[in-house]
């Protein structure tokens, strides 16, 4: 992409501050890699919350992917910032290792010999250059927050850092053996990132234990918002405001509501119809699904199946109704993060 093309691309990305636009114009291939990698972290976010009232849904009508949700300093927003920051690191490190970018490649520090619990080994292969990816991510992603330095900016910076640290946390040493008859007398090893799912699982756990905070008297850091809360560590996610319940559609809070969402009638968890539908009730429809059946193994290397039609019941949450209002209000007073507190007798 030429200079003019990169300038046009960068000028048409909404929400960038001047520092980000400057970096975008200087590194158009990096920005293209980040854009392509967005699908991966959004997909991971939606996987982690697929059975919850807030399911990391996106909207194409707003200037950002999550609309007005990002205006609120909630724990869901904390997760979005952490997973997106992690996604940028993961995408860039992978692009460097695959040779897709001109300004980076494999980690140049992994040279010579080293040792681990199994003995000595030689560095070889292509180690993912995570430090380079973290450095660029910190400069680019944090640029907007460093202009403000208010409570919300401090929250975003903290969660951005937690996301970056999560990718580095799951770096693993992978080795290949050399020697007579695979004796492994010589090992060649390299550092590789784990599958992004491990980062997503880790940040999901951090979301569950996120700490509500307030800015300290100096405006430089956080204290726990309540005396019985622990002080957040650098690995914790932090948030400033309570979450909406996400039961009904509310454009002001960024809630899409749960009307029309699939739920499980048998479950008593967050995916159960009682919790997901917030007491509004649910509709049942019998639908036909195509499944693989009568599978047979054929020598030597093939499994052949028939396509069978199966009738199953699907349950979807209803819209708000007057008759459901009392039950819905009762359920809305219960945290959607703790469905075990809801009585179903």
From TrEMBL:
Keyword Secreted: yes
UniProt xrefs under SMART domains: WNT1 (SM00097)
Keyword Signal: yes
Species whose genome carries this gene: Poecilia reticulata
Role this protein plays: Ligand for members of the frizzled family of seven transmembrane receptors.
Domain of life according to the entry: Eukaryota
Keywords for this protein: Developmental protein, Disulfide bond, Extracellular matrix, Glycoprotein, Lipoprotein, Secreted, Signal, Wnt signaling pathway
Lineage, broadest ranks: Eukaryota, Metazoa, Chordata, Craniata, Vertebrata
Compartments (UniProt record): Secreted, Extracellular space, Extracellular matrix
Single GO MF annotation: cytokine activity
The protein, known as: Protein Wnt
Pfam families for this protein: wnt
Gene3D superfamilies xref list: 3.30.2460.20
GO cellular component, one term: extracellular space
InterPro entries reported for this sequence: Wnt, Wnt2, Wnt_C, Wnt_CS
Gene Ontology BP, a term: animal organ development
Family: Belongs to the Wnt family.
């Amino acid at each position: 992409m030429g200079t003019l093309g990169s300038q046009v691309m960068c000028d048409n990305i909404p929400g960038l501050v001047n520092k980000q636009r400057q970096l975008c114009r200087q590194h158009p291939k990096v920005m293209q890699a980040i854009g392509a990698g967005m699908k991966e972290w959004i997909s991971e976010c939606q996987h982690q919350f697929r059975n919850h009232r807030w399911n990391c849904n996106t909207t194409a009508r707003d200037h950002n992917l999550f609309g007005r949700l990002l205006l609120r300093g909630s724990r869901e927003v904390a997760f979005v910032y952490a997973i997106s920051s992690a996604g940028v690191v993961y995408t860039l490190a992978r692009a460097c290792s695959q040779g897709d970018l001109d300004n980076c490649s494999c980690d140049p520090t992994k040279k010579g010999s080293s040792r681990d619990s199994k003995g000595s080994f030689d560095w070889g292969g292509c180690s993912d250059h995570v430090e380079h990816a973290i450095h660029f991510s910190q400069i680019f992603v944090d640029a907007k927050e460093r202009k403000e330095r208010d409570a919300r900016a401090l929250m975003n910076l903290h969660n951005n850092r937690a996301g970056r640290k999560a990718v580095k946390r799951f770096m693993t040493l992978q080795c290949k053996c050399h020697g007579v008859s695979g004796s492994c007398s010589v090992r060649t090893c390299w550092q590789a990132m784990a599958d992004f799912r491990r980062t997503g699982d880790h940040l999901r756990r951090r979301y569950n234990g996120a700490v509500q905070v307030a800015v300290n008297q100096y405006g430089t850091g956080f204290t726990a918002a309540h005396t019985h809360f622990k002080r957040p560590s650098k690995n914790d996610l932090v948030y400033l405001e309570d979450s909406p319940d996400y039961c009904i559609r509310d454009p002001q809070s960024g809630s899409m509501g749960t009307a029309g969402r699939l739920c499980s009638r048998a479950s008593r968890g967050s995916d159960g119809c009682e919790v997901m539908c917030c007491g509004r009730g649910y509709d049942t429809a019998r639908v036909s699904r195509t499944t693989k059946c009568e599978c047979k193994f054929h020598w030597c290397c093939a499994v052949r199946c028939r396509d069978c039609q199966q009738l199953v019941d699907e349950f979807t949450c209803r819209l708000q109704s007057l008759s459901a209002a009392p039950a819905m209000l009762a359920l809305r007073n219960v945290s959607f993060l703790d469905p075990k507190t809801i009585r179903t007798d």
